[in-house]
Amino acid sequence: MPGKSVKNAYLAGLIDGEGSLYLKLDDGNGVMAQLTIAMCSEETIGWIAENFGGRVERVNRVRKENHSQLWRWRVHGAMAAVILKDTIPYMVTKRRLAELFVEFVGESYRGWYVPDDFRLVRQEIYEEYLDAR
To answer: Which mean pLDDT values do the consecutive 10-residue runs of the chain (133 residues) have?
Structure first.
């Protein structure tokens, strides 16, 4: 059975290739931070959930005859940031986005509520994230 660093490196490759790091900051106090990986391999998506937690979803989409079923793994907020902290050393393509994601979530992540003292910091991080995408 592979060790933690091997699992983190494998997940980093999946995030770099098939992953999406989504941040949203609205005009009010709304904030969203989500990490997803989508692919046709239900086995791989299941492995991710088994080793890192999170949620597995069967994606309903209009399928053409030659298309396979799509599966998605999803994790939000602080849990996503913890996972990214462990995978960043192995990332290449989305490393900077992952670093910004971790900064954006910060130690004081409280779901949809953003404390005033952290709001300006998040705004700056969010603008950098938009530029980096």
So the answer is: 87 97 78 92 97 94 79 95 97 96 75 68 87 88
Non-local CB neighbours of 46 within 8 Å, separated by 6+ positions = 56
pTM: 0.86
Residue spans of alpha helices (H) in 1-133: 4-18, 42-52, 77-87, 95-105, 116-132
What does the alpha-carbon distance between residue 17 and residue 110 come to, in Å, rounded to a whole number?
29
**Residue with tokens 């009010």, as numbered in its chain:** 28
Q: How far apart are CA 54 and CA 76, in angstroms?
A: 8
Separation of alpha carbons 29 and 37, rounded Å: 27
CATH of the domain at 44: 3.10.28.10
Domain membership of residue 78 as a residue range = 4-132
Pairing type for strands 70-76 and 55-59 reads antiparallel
Q: How many domains does the chain have?
A: 1
